Amino acid sequence: MVSKRKLLKAETSGENSNADPPSRCSETKKSRISAPDRVETEGIFEELIRTSGIVLKVGEGQNEIAVDQMTFQKKLCLALEKHPAYPGVVKQFISGLESHIKDRNQFKNCLLPCSPIQTEGSRTRHLYCDSLIKLLLGIKILQPAVITLLLEKIPEFFFDIVGTFGTDFPRLIINQFKWLDKFLDSQDLVKKLMQLVSVSPVPIQHDIITSLPEILEDSQQSEVARELSCLLKQGRRLTVPILDALSRLDLDAGLLAEVRQSAMTIVPSVKLEDLPVVVKFILHNVKAADAVEVISDLRKNLDLSSCDLPLKILSSQKKVKSQVQASSSMSQVTTSQNCVKLLFDVIKLAVRFQKEVSEAWIKAIENSTSVSDHKVLDLMVLLLIHSTNTKYGKQAEKLLKSKIRLGCMPEQLMQNAFQNHSLVIKDFFPSILAVAQTFLHSGHPAVVSFGSCMYKQAFAAFDSYCQQEVVTALVTHVCSGNETELDISLDVLTDLVVLHTALLMRYATFVKTILDSTQKLHPCQIRKLFYILSTLAFSQRQEGSYIQDDMHMVIRKWLSSTVPNHKQMGIIGAVTMIGSVALKRNEGDGSSLERPELNSERDEQLSNLLDLVGICCEQTPEVLALYYDEFANLIEKQKGNLDLQLLDKFGKSLVEDFPSDFVVDLGPTVDGSFLFPVKSLYNLDEDETQGAIAINLLPLVSQSDLGRVTGGMSSQSKRVVSPLCLSPCFRLLRFYTAEQNSGSLEEIDALLGCPLYLTNLEVEGKLDSLSKQEREFLCSLLFYALNWFREVVNAFCQQQDAEMKGKVLTRLQNITELQNVLGKCLAATPGYVPPPATFDSEALEAVSSTNAVGPVRKKNGKKKKTDGSKASSADRSQADDSSEGNQPDTELSELEKTTAEREAENPLTKLQNYRPYFRELDLEVFTVLHCGLLTKSVLDTEMHTEFCEVVQLGPTELSFLLDDLCWKLEHVLTPSSTRRVPFLKERSYRDIGFSHLCQRSPKEVATCVVKLLKPLCNHTEKMHSYFQAVIQNQGAEDEPGVNIQEHMLMSSCYQQLLLTFRSLFAWNGFSQPENTDLLRSALQVLAERLKPGETEFLLLEDLISESFHYVLNFQQSVPSFYCAFILTQLLITIAEKPMAGWKKEKIASLAKQFLCQSWVRPSGDREKGNQFNSALHTLLCVYLEHTDNILKAIEEISSVGVPELINSAKDGCSSTYPTLTRQTFLIFFRVMMAQLESSVKSIPAGKPSDSSEVQLEKLLRWNIAVRNFHILINLVKVFDSRPVLGVCLKYGRLFVEAFLKLAMPLLDYSFKKHRDDVQSLLKTLQLSTRQLHHMCGHSKIHQDIGLTNHVPLLKKSLEQFVYRVKAMLAFNHCQEAFWLGVLKNRDLQGEEILSQASGDKGSDEEDSAESPAEELSGSSTDHSDENGAGPAGPGSPAAP
């Protein structure tokens, strides 16, 4: 009341003074006339403020301070304390302040910094001064009242819109509390502020929360942090200010983890614009100790799919053409992308400046095993780490490559990243280029494919600069000369030119530069290059004309060259250009490739080019044959898309020559003199007497040989007709005819059944009487005939007419018959070089290379290589590494191993070495497998059916088809990680015979085979029934013996069928999501065999189970160990999608069943050889890896099987494991040692926190492992061959190292509780380490380099173990139980090495490799084996 009265009095005085200014100017009054912007009336507040040094202003001007801030506060405090009315004057002062700040302008002035003024006596001027309110808060006697006043003022502004008065008053008020030196009652202030938060509007809540770190005292931070954490969970509106405040508070570890967890829980549901702040808080506060856990949680909760939603909405709205909605969605997309950009900026800062974040993120991704756990975020973060953190860049790249190999990072993830987050991904463009370049060097097809996809996505998603860099990188790959890079880069450019023709046209100049490096390209690559250039050159745009000129120039130069390789490249380029010009016009899509308007200039250019091609081909049959093949490939590839008018113009002249060159009327005699009498053979149309035709083969071959002998034709102008062109010309004819007649081959169907002019092929016993020239002529004739039949089968295999199908089957029979004859002829004609069947440069190079040694010698070379890598212990070379013997040969494919193994049994299989000289079978040929029994009608002269002949696909024809199918599947579907990518010069050999196949994608091949699964299952079931009957009849006495030839043939078919299944299901493409339906279709065929009509709606996992059971049913009928091996691999392949526990048990049981089975050939001999050894190695690994108790399984083999072998006859075997013989012992021994060492690594290391039961369980497992190790090591005394010693030294060291790393920590902590168990364990191990020491001495005595290489590392491990045991005893305060001695060198039988026993003791100590050994006190020691002191073996306690 006093203050109010005084204020009222002051106001009255003010009014009086305004009314009568001259009479109110005395010194005694408290009011005066001042400047217009100063306060005109004074109360206690105004007077004390003025006298203390601040001039209060009204209006827009700032309050002015004439003294130092500290001086002002001291003066004011002193004035208040010495005032007569103190302490009542404080209330009056606050009342005056309250009245003063009722005016908003004056309140604003009090909240804003004061303006310092320079007085006459002062020398310095303060640049910045606090506001009046803040200065008052710094005075103790005023602080509580001022705080209360300010907090009561805040509600007045709850409903103000910021900007109405140009000032955010709540923010200014809260700012006054920041950075004060001291609060008299900070608890009360914070309590009131938090109460305000609960009732204030959001903007004021935001200001209060963000200001808390500058207001709080240290002791209050934890309490407020908990309140803010609770507030964070309650709503999402204050996420940003709360996390901003929390990040600036100093919290203890426990509270920080709690707060971080609160932040983590809101990550999935937080607003997109708030997400960067939340992630920044989580990453900023992460500590090294819990970084992996935090990042793992963040990965799970952080989902970028919500950011993709606006983009999907936009694309859907564009389809319905909603302009308004689309523009709204576009703004959402922009906002969304900007938020993701900010998010990755936050992650980028953390990765760059926080080492633990990079490590943790890499570890978190590495720890994720399921495919579904991997997200777009993972890929983007790995690229971010690669581009930001050089230290972890390589690690991120390595992890990405590993995930791709495992199928965890499908290409779809990358496509989503580029399509939905191109703004972010673009920042990593240099890393994308670097990673893609590295991936193209990889040998794994999935990694290479991922790298190529990165190039394609970068080109499609980024700007012109990035596109140019992508094209430049691809061109660099092409010109590098690396085979894999070259192929993939051309494939990427091919995809780009198809999908983005207009875009790639801008960079055509770069692509054109590849023409300068064509010497490094083989024909298939030349084909791709000219397709790319032709597409660019003959698109609708005029810009392509300069590319056309360059292509014409290059092709003409090649065609005019005398180098055969250049001519072939010219032909390939010319035909590819023709193909681009002859494509049909596509009117629907203006951007697609169209045939331009025919103009005379272009027609003339192409006509001249074709004339030049024709001229260069006339005198060279190989080049002409290539021309035919290239044109045929063009028609096949562009089937249905070629302009028939242009096709007729370019191709008609080529096919018109076929009848005149190769077909003659069938007559009783043939004019001319030949090496052999001409005979018409293989006529399927014998009923047709009129107009019958024949293929004039033998006369053409004679003419060709005569031309070679005489040095060529006398008239160079006459066109050469060579049998080399027979099959290629027919191939072109059939594609041309089918294209012109909508797929019908009726015009040329007479060629299917017409005979060939050959000679009498009953060569048995006659070959020795023939000259070398005659034998070679006969071989060439057979090759030409076989290739003709192969092309005929290719052409007519898809005909639906039953009679035509019958003829096709007959032609297959003719092929197998001719192959038998050819095999005999080749065996009698060593060094013979067949005529080529494929005519591009890679084939010719391979042919010349092969001819240098001859096919027979090539076989021997391969066999030698096989023997060198898989020799048995009896015949291994001393130079071979003993630890690597009998390993599966990764350099040879399964089919090469099969072929090599079968060659010794069947000389006809040597034809596999001549594969480059046979025409390729098309994939469509295998539709013949659908055929059952077909009837071929024989008509009489009046077209009545005279009799019927049943034609069936027999086992010989089935084996022929399946063998070719297996080679094709291995070539296309088998990942190159299992068949290594060869060097540059070897690559071309691998593709010979697969040129047509290579033009199809693996998915197309897999789809084709899936369609064949039903007939393949039928044939497999027939084989199953056949061998079941054989097994049942073996026990019957009255049954005739087994037909060995038939048994071998059926066994071969069975093996090829299983190989086909395995190649299909092992295709890594099934792991890609886009191929899931194809996998389902394949599994459905197998499941349908068990549950007909019930598989349509089964889940994929159920289909896998049914298919597994179907394949498992064949286990009782497998005829050979190799078939059993393939069956097991097939089951594993199916079960891995995914592997369930019961499937694992079934596989282990099946593998053991096969190992415990006696495998005998039909001749009665036990199976053996390299193929058997390789299969045994793998099957034994499968058994030990899938069994539930590997230690028990090893103990059973070593304790039961091996003693049985030792007690058996010299050529005997184990009765329990018949596959365990003296020849296969090394395989069993190596696998058991390797698996034992691998299994102990899975035993967890001991921890101090382990309970007594856990320790005892681990000790028991180690006890069994050490006992097994002891048994295996001691087998060296019986089987002391060099390879066995090598295995012992290698895996003995690894076992000891694993014991040091994993078992010794366990012994440290369990010694006191389980002393007897520990001592027993160490004593058992001593017996083994002592024997290892003897092996070291044996190796040195025999000076075997292969063995002594293992000795230094092994001795080091043994000595480390000695001192590690001593450390364990010291840790348990039992150091007196340990003593150290010297162990003498002895041989395998324990005899002391004489060089050490005799001579001077000192020199012996220098020369001999004596090792320290330890002894546990209290144990009885057998000293007969050691020196007089009785030391133990190195690295182990003494034996009892």
Descriptive report:
The longest helix has 33 residues, at 1002-1034. The protein is globular and about 150 Å long. It has 1440 residues and is mainly alpha-helical. The protein has 60 helices and 11 strands. Strand 8 and strand 9 (945-952) form a beta hairpin.
Features:
1440 residues, mainly alpha, three-stranded mixed sheet, 61% helix, disordered C terminus
Give the SSE layout:
Blueprint: H1 2-19, H2 44-52, E1 54-55, E2 64-65, H3 69-82, H4 88-100, H5 104-111, E3 115-116, H6 132-137, H7 143-153, H8 169-175, H9 186-199, H10 202-215, H11 221-234, H12 239-247, H13 253-266, H14 275-284, H15 291-301, H16 305-320, H17 323-353, H18 355-367, H19 376-388, H20 390-405, H21 411-420, H22 422-425, H23 429-440, H24 445-461, H25 464-480, H26 483-499, H27 501-505, H28 508-512, H29 523-537, H30 545-560, H31 564-581, H32 600-618, H33 621-637, H34 644-655, H35 657-662, E4 663-665, E5 679-681, E6 693-695, H36 697-709, H37 726-740, H38 750-753, E7 756-758, H39 772-796, H40 802-827, H41 841-870, H42 894-903, E8 933-939, E9 945-952, H43 955-973, H44 984-991, H45 1002-1034, H46 1044-1065, H47 1076-1090, H48 1100-1112, H49 1121-1135, H50 1141-1155, H51 1170-1186, H52 1190-1206, H53 1225-1240, H54 1252-1274, H55 1282-1310, H56 1315-1342, H57 1345-1348, H58 1351-1371, E10 1378-1383, H59 1394-1397, H60 1401-1407, E11 1411-1416
Parallel strand pairs: 2-3
Antiparallel strand pairs: 1-2, 4-6, 5-7, 8-9, 10-11
